[in-house]
C-alpha cells in the first residue's frame, strides 16, 4: 500500500476552550517541532505560575470605546476558539480583558495604541478584543515591551464593510517569552490589514489567523522580523477560506545574524470546497547575514475546490547577494554601507506599508541598531 497523506486541515481541526483537551506537547508534533519547548518556562505544560504582570494601557482615538471586563463578558471568545494548548491555557488563566469597540460607521481620527509592558518574573496571561462595527474604520497598534513570560489571545472582529488596520510590535527585552494567537474574523466585504514586527525577546511564537463569515472579505498579512544570536522568533499563520469570493495575501520577510539565530515561518492556507472564487498568495523571504543562523520556512496550500481565482505560494532563504554589494562598492560605497543599503532595500517595500509614522520610524531605527551590531 502507498503512503497515506493527510490533508493539511488536520493540523487545525482541534479547537477548545478546555486546556485538558490538548495533550502536553513533546516537540515531536508537527505544530511544535520547531519550537524550543524547554525555553517556554512552563507555558506549554501548565507549570508556569501566574505570578507575573503585564500592564495594559490604552491611548484610544476619541471615537473608540475602551472597556476592561471580566471573563464573563459575552464578547470574549466569540470570534476565536483556542487552537493549541498554550492558547487554551491563556484563555483559561486571564482575569481581565481589554475590549476596544469602534461604533458603526465611525472613522477613527487617529490610531489607538495598546501598550503592554511586562515587569518581573512569573507568567502572565491576557486577552484583547477589538470590535469594528459595520462600515467603521480604525487603526490599532499593539506595542509589546519589557520583561515577561506572557501568553495571550487577541480577537479582531471586523464587521460588514468595515476596515481595520493593525500594527503589532514585539520589542521585548532579551529575556522575554511571548506566545500569542491573533485571530481576525471578517464579515461581508470587510477589510483587514495586519503588520507584524518582531524584534525582541528570547522566544516569541506568534500565530496570526484569519477566518471569513461572508463573501467579499479581504485580508493582507505582512510581517518583518530581525533575529539576533540565540533568539528564536516563530510566526505560524493560518488563513482559512470557507466562503466564496474572498481574498488573502501574506508577505513576511526576515533577516538573521549571529550564532543560533533561528527564524521559523509556517504559512498555512486552506481553501475549502465551498470557497469558490478565492484569490490567495503567500510569500516568505529570509536573508541570512552570518554563519550559524538558521531559517525554517514552510508554506502550505491546500485547495479543495477547482474553482479559484488564484492561489500560490513562494519561499526562499539565502545569503546577502554579493553582486549587489559589489555593484555598490564599484561605485565608491564602502562595504558596510553597501551591506546596509542592500538590507534596507530588502525591507523597504514592507516598511512603506506601516501607515503609523511613529512606528515606521521606530522600526527603521531598530533595524539600524540591529545592523550596527
UniProtKB/TrEMBL annotation:
Domain SUF system FeS cluster assembly SufBD core: start-end pairs: 120-346
GO biological process, one term: iron-sulfur cluster assembly
InterPro entries: Fe-S_cluster_assembly_SufBD (IPR055346), SUF_FeS_clus_asmbl_SufBD_core (IPR000825), SUF_FeS_clus_asmbl_SufBD_sf (IPR037284), SUF_FeS_clus_asmbl_SufD (IPR011542)
Sequence similarity: Belongs to the iron-sulfur cluster assembly SufBD family.
Protein name stated in the entry: Fe-S cluster assembly protein SufD
